[in-house]
Amino acid sequence: MIETPLALLPLDRSSQEICDWFELYALSSEYHSANFSELARMWDKRRNSEDADFEGSASTQEDSFLEEINQIIRERMEFLGDCYPFKFSENDEELIYDKDDLNNGSVIYLFCLFLSNTNNDDIFDDDSFFEINNKVRDLFQACATWAAAGEVEGHSYSFGFPRPDHSGFLVKLTAIYQYFSDGKVRNAPLPGASINPKDEEIDVIAWRPRQDKAPGTYYLLGQAASGENWKDKSITGAIYAFHRNWFNVIPASTPTPAMFIPFNIIPARTETLQEKISYLIPRYGTIFYRYRMPPLAKKGLEISKIDQGLTIERTAELNQISDWVLNVIEKFRKACVYS
Questions:
Q1: Which of 59, 221, 229, 237 has the most Cβ atoms closer than 10 angstroms to its Cβ?
Q2: How far apart are CA 156 and CA 275, in angstroms?
Q3: Alpha helices in the chain (DSSP H)
Q4: Chain mean pLDDT for the chain
Q5: Is the pLDDT of residue 189 over 70?
Q6: Which residues are CB-neighbours of 147 under 8 A, at least 6 positions away?
């Protein structure tokens, strides 16, 4: 039995969130594993002790509940590949934290797992063992920069404020687009513009270089949102103003709007994941969420080592993310009581 900072099994939450809880439970356990039979006992205990009309998975029978959780875990394994830091035991009865086989992608997955559940009281009773400050959130923008590089297979710049190189808005913007060779940045702000602009809601600028260096390539403008208020943001409306207000000559390449988040996309019970994403794209652009971020960020980091001609910023900060994740897991486990 384990006493952990985790809340009780959140039966009234979505199956995706229950899977997050189960992964965290595996992380907290003495032997880095969580048994599905134990999950079933927790399900039974809560169902029998609470007089509540649970939604979602809790309204089903035990076998259906376990099958749904099992199916989501297999879905995560399928989409994330070796970036998923958990595996089944040989008899498929346990979920095991595969701590001896972590790679850059699986570390980023764990980073996203903690980021996306920080303020979720249905997951954590006590989250004081780790801190999500502005520096930690800024590291997520580094992840977004690498994921953008993996997506476009090209250059990727971290433009969100505050910039690690402490560059000014126009100085950084001019340098990026001179290298892009598509579009011309204004020498000075338009009348009425802020005299001290930050990032105009653009956190990541990435593109795939063409062999002939001509315009008309995969050109991505992204926003990194690590907080639960990401749904209140939308980069699609910011791109027009960004180009109009800060360029004498707007890039000829068609921009792809993108939203980078550490969360999972949670469809309603009447819709598929694909249908949910299709609905969200017109407002948020291409969404890079927890199923997509880790493999693409891993790919971007690998590209940065293979092709020295590409600029992929902030790769040196990977160790900061790894250290933070491992430190959080250690503190998490120390906060647990095993009996």
A1: 221
A2: 29
A3: 15-28, 36-49, 62-80, 104-117, 134-152, 169-180, 236-246, 273-284, 293-306, 318-334
A4: 90
A5: yes
A6: 260, 288, 292, 293, 296, 297, 300
Contact call for residues 314 and 142 (beta carbons, < 8 A): yes
**Beta strands 247-249; 286-288: pairing state:** unpaired
Give per-residue pLDDT as tens, 31-57. Answer: 899 999 888 888 877 777 655 554 444
* Residue 228: C-alpha distances to residues 17, 25, 120, 131, 334 (Å): 14, 22, 9, 16, 27
Q: How far apart are CA 64 and CA 29, in angstroms?
A: 25
Q: Write down the pLDDT at residue 43.
A: 81
Single out the residue of 212, 22, 20, 197 nearest to residue 118, CA to CA: 20
Alpha carbon distance 122, 51 (integer Å): 17
CA distance 30 to 339: 10
What is the pairing mode between strands 219-224 and 184-185?
unpaired
CA distance 150 to 185: 26
User: Helix, strand or coil for residue 130?
Assistant: coil
Q: How confident is the model at residue 1 (pLDDT cuts 50, 70, 90)?
A: low
Residue 324: CB atoms within 10 A of its CB come to 20
Is 147:293 a contact under the CB 8 Å cutoff? yes
Task: Confirm if 329 and 27 have CB atoms less than 8 A apart.
Answer: yes
Distance CA 11, CA 231 (A): 24
Which of 205, 149, 159, 153 shows the shortest CA–CA distance to 182? 205
Q: Could you give the angle at which helices 36-49 and 62-80 cross, rounded to 10 degrees?
A: 140
Rounded Cα distance, 28 and 331, in Å: 10
In the chain, where the domains are located: 2-132+324-338, 134-315
SS3 content of the chain, % helix, strand, coil (to 5): 50, 15, 40
CB atoms inside a 10 Å sphere around CB 235: 25
